[in-house]
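Translate sequence into structure tokens.
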Amino acid sequence: MLYLGENPSAKTRVNVLKKVKVNGAWKLCPVVVEPSGKLKDKVRINGRTEVHTEGIYYIEWRENQQRRRQAVLNRHEVLEQARLKALELDAKKAGIEVAASSPSIRATPPVLSHALPARPISFEQNGISSAVGVIFQSIQSYLQEVVDHVVESHLARLGLAATETTSRPLPALTSAPADLAQERTQQPSPPKTPQPDESKVLIANAIEAYLKNIEPPQRERKTYDEYRLVLHIFRDTCGKKYLHEIDRDDCLAFMRHLYSLGNEARTVYNRISVVQLLLKLNGITGLLQSRDKPKWVANLRKMYEPQDLEALFSTKILAIEVAAGEYPAATLNSCGDGPSAGFLVNS
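Result follows.
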């Protein structure tokens, strides 16, 4: 289970959970964090990693011997809220008084002041070096104000009061006289292209990627053709667009479709296993139970009776004797059908 804490020695534990629907019931499950440190709707259920786009994220912690939870509606803020809660719990354990705070509180960002520096700039007396020094001093003051704002913002989230806060107007970085430089026109930023959700994989793309990996000589041509036929039938009859939308009903409907095509139970079993392999490679498991898959009885080989074996061995012995010359003018004529068929010797 994922938990966050800034101070490991303090044993601060903040769990990150998600309430998802499992077998028709809502259940809190631990989340799975991507290697990049992001959440992409993956949870762990009975030791398996599954993708669930439904549900709400929660952070969970213990306070005063009681378990507490808090819902976080925005997926991108879950880990940050858990980290801040861990800091708050560490502060309380250290004896720092923490006031009640709301996660929706946002500190007011710093506003640039459009006033010129108190001391006027004399370009004729001081020259270019003096102007450059004033610009760098203004930049330094602005950066200091930004740092102070970030610190105060974090303290406000934790409910902590800053030891000493001073509000200083920021010098305008772009309010220089016209003789120094002309005002720069702000260029409009290009529109951002929406990024596709990586958790939504098209069924057709997943099938083509899988078939690309098993092309001959990785698999025999006969096996590759069978897998491609099965997966294309599933793609055309599934009725879903994305891979994570496939559920148990889709698998059962595919098996019923195979039966309607005249496939036998053993063929249906083998073909639904191909579909399950594709889903497993994409992190989707547990849709079908063993009782859902068809059962069949293997064909039994016909057993020979003792009299059939005796007739067979006697015929073999007779053929050996003819070949050895004991019956030089003899010919063998078959008589009877089946396992008990024999030969007659005519001289």
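Note: The chain has four domains: 3-93, 107-178, 203-292, 306-346.
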